[in-house]
Amino acid sequence: MRNLRVVVLVVILSSTLVGSSLAQTNPVNRYFDQTGCTVQGQFLVYWEEHGGLAQFGYPLTNQFYDPPRLFSNDLPLVQYFERARFEYHPENQPPNDVLLTLLGSQLYKEKYPFGASNQQPNNNNPYFFAQTGKSLGGKLRTYWESHGGLAAQGYPISNEFQEVAVDGKSYTVQYFERAVFEYHPENVSTAYEVLLAPLGVARYHQLLATTNFYALDVGKDGIAWAGGECGVLLQHNNDRWTVTSNFQGVSAIKSVSLSGNNGVRVLDGAIFYRINGGWSRESQYGGITAFQMKDDGSGWAGSSTEPSLFMRFEQDNWGFTNFRSESWLQSIDMLSPQEGWAITNSGTFHHYTKGSWIVAQRAKVTSAYLSQVSMVSVNDGWVAAGGKDKLYHYDGTSWRPVATPIDQPLSSIHMIDSSDGWSVGAKGTILHYDGTSWQQQPSPTNKDLNAVKMVSANEGWAVGDAGTMLHYWDGVWSLYSF
């Protein structure tokens, strides 16, 4: 599974099932193998009726609720395409229930805050728009009128001018509210004489570049999920990462746990379970700080709403136990339903054995900020930390600090077995354990890495700040291209 393309989103305010409103409106869908994404419902109807591939390009994501940080204060259901971003507005009657984001206007304001220089109106059959004071003529007018006009492209917000495109060549362009037209004389008398700039690609990359990813889980079959800020969720399947969620909210996904037959749960203050393509709030209680599913019927969590009480998942329900931690749980790793460990952010090691939780050990104050625990066996386990001591090892008797070759805080650890493990942390830090010692590895990034999970000894993933995703394959960590 080599580097391909990517991406993501989500979170939760409702305790009811949150599914795809478009899918419910119209079950028809179309899968695009080129990007691994599906277009469905009213988005598919609009895509097909307004130019399809030539007008909008391939889908870059599945439909999801976009966070408000980039575009507005609401959370519209959206889908990114190469040349556009669709928004679903159920308050409007068709065909206005699907609207295109004003990507042309946004880009123009960013690149030319005082207006582009050397603009010239096209005097070949011109049409003047009093609304913006700009004219449209020639081949660009012909294209505008035959490809959706005002509804699809919006008003012109510039006249024609020369601009260097992504291929390094200069073209005659004209900006519209929802698009940028490029005139390509080398394609004269063909359907490609006028092309649309890939505005959807640019905004999609901007979305990812402003997302910090915190959560990651990977199955042995290569299925994987990653989560981050503003409820962004990515799914890896068929050798691709895609944004693939219908959560609605603005919080961050802090943990992801796979279980059973393609089961997946995410943590965003509460635990949500994916079922029938939608998401259902599974935990009655909020304020959950860490959780792990051992299988579809067994799991543990910790909640800060009832001063750090442990929660257990049994018989399809989460319920509080009698055990209380003095501070928030940071990570849980169960070897079996009868054996496991949990750590707190303040440096406490909790051991579950013989049917109950006990406080097994406390780290020194200067060594607090425990990050993640990864158990190999009942007598072998590791913890990554961000305090004075960066790694702890459990030998069946006690947890002891272990020397590391760096002084950067570590945020995540995953042990494949007793002689193979990985840990990641601040400023792109990557450490590898070979059964004897931990050694720093070459890293393709200087961004903070927040989670690591291995598929096998030969493959794994790590995620971090600013849209960072790393892929480990055959001995090398490389930056995954979104």
- Look at the helices and sheets and give the structural class: mainly beta
The low-confidence runs, each spanning 5 or more residues with pLDDT under 50, are 1-26
- What is the oligomeric state here? single chain
CATH architecture of the largest domain: 7 Propeller
Strand content: 35-45%
N→C terminal distance: 15 Å
Q: Fraction of residues in helices? A: 10-25%
Q: Average pLDDT value?
A: 87
Shape: elongated
Strands of the largest sheet, in order across it?
3-4-5-6
Q: How would you describe the overall organization of this protein?
A:
It is built from 7 helices and 40 strands. It has 482 residues and is mainly β. It folds into 2 domains: 116-197, no CATH class; 211-479, Methylamine Dehydrogenase, Chain H. The strands form 11 sheets. The chain has a 4-stranded antiparallel β-sheet, with helices on both faces. Strands 9-10-11-12 form a 4-stranded antiparallel β-sheet, with helices on both faces. It has a 4-stranded antiparallel β-sheet with strand order 13-14-15-16, with no helix packed on it. The longest helix has 11 residues, at 199-209.
